[in-house]
């Protein structure tokens, strides 16, 4: 049984949900900010960094312009990482919500890694 915990990060983004979803759900979009090389075959995405061995993740759920949830093939069955697009009610601002799992003592490091990645995403979006 895994000791990993679910954690959530939220990032306001100045971008339409449609454009943001493309960056979160397509190999070309993910390759812009998330990994050096991204391929997809039959719902399984292959992510490579620095020419290393690819990590594979299966899309387990998605809704166009709302969210996409991946499961790393090497991780526990109940673990996933998710990109969710929400809108605030009052200001109608777009919020990127990232959910991921990490060991309790690794959540801070994992959060910083996501923050770095999201900064790269915002740079690509011009946001």
Write the layout of secondary structure elements.
Blueprint lengths: L4 E9 L3 H9 L1 H7 L3 E5 L2 E5 L6 E9 L3 E6 L8 E7 L6 E9 L4 H19 L2
Antiparallel strand pairs: 1-7, 2-3, 3-4, 4-5, 5-6, 6-7
What can be said about this structure in brief?
By secondary structure, the protein is of the alpha+beta class. It has helices at 17-25, 27-33, 107-125; strands at residues 5-13, 37-41, 44-48, 55-63, 67-72, 81-87, 94-102.
Characterization of the model:
The protein is α+β, with helices and mostly antiparallel strands. It has a single domain (5-125), classed as Alpha-D-Glucose-1,6-Bisphosphate, Chain A, domain 4 (2-Layer Sandwich), CATH 3.30.530. 28% of the residues lie in helices and 39% in strands. The protein has three helices and seven strands; from the N terminus they run E-H-H-E-E-E-E-E-E-H. The chain has helices at residues 17-25, 27-33, 107-125; strands at 5-13, 37-41, 44-48, 55-63, 67-72, 81-87, 94-102. Strands 1-7-6-5-4-3-2 form a seven-stranded antiparallel sheet. Strand 5 (67-72) and strand 6 form a beta hairpin. Helix 1 crosses helix 2. The chain is globular, with a radius of gyration of 14 Å. The termini are far apart.
Number of domains: 1
Give the termini separation.
40 Å
Compressed to H and E, one letter per element, the order equals EHHEEEEEEH
Any idea of the CATH class? Alpha Beta
Strand content: 35-45%
CATH homologous superfamily label = START domain
- Unreliable segments (pLDDT under 50, ≥5 consecutive)? none
Side-by-side strand order of the widest sheet: 1-7-6-5-4-3-2
Bin the helical content.
25-40%
Question: What would the CATH topology be?
Answer: Alpha-D-Glucose-1,6-Bisphosphate, Chain A, domain 4
Radius of gyration, taken over Cα atoms and rounded to an integer in Å: 14 Å
Which geometry do the CA atoms define? globular
User: What is the average per-residue confidence, as pLDDT, rounded to a whole number?
Assistant: 95
Protein name: START-like domain-containing protein
Pfam family, one: START_2
InterPro entries: START-like_dom_sf, START_2
Organism: Hydrotalea sandarakina
């Amino acid at each position: 049984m895994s000791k990993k915990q679910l954690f959530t990060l939220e990032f306001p983004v100045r971008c339409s949900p449609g454009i943001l979803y493309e960056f979160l759900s397509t190999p070309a979009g993910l390759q812009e900010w998330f990994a050096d090389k991204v391929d997809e075959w039959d719902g399984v995405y292959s992510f490579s960094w620095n020419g290393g061995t690819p990590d594979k993740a299966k899309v387990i759920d998605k809704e166009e312009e709302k969210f996409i949830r991946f499961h790393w093939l090497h991780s526990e069955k109940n673990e996933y990482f998710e990109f969710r697009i929400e809108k605030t009610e009052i200001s109608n601002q777009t919020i990127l919500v990232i959910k991921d799992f990490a060991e309790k003592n690794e959540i801070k490091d994992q959060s910083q890694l996501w923050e770095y990645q999201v900064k790269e995403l915002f740079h690509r979006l011009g946001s």
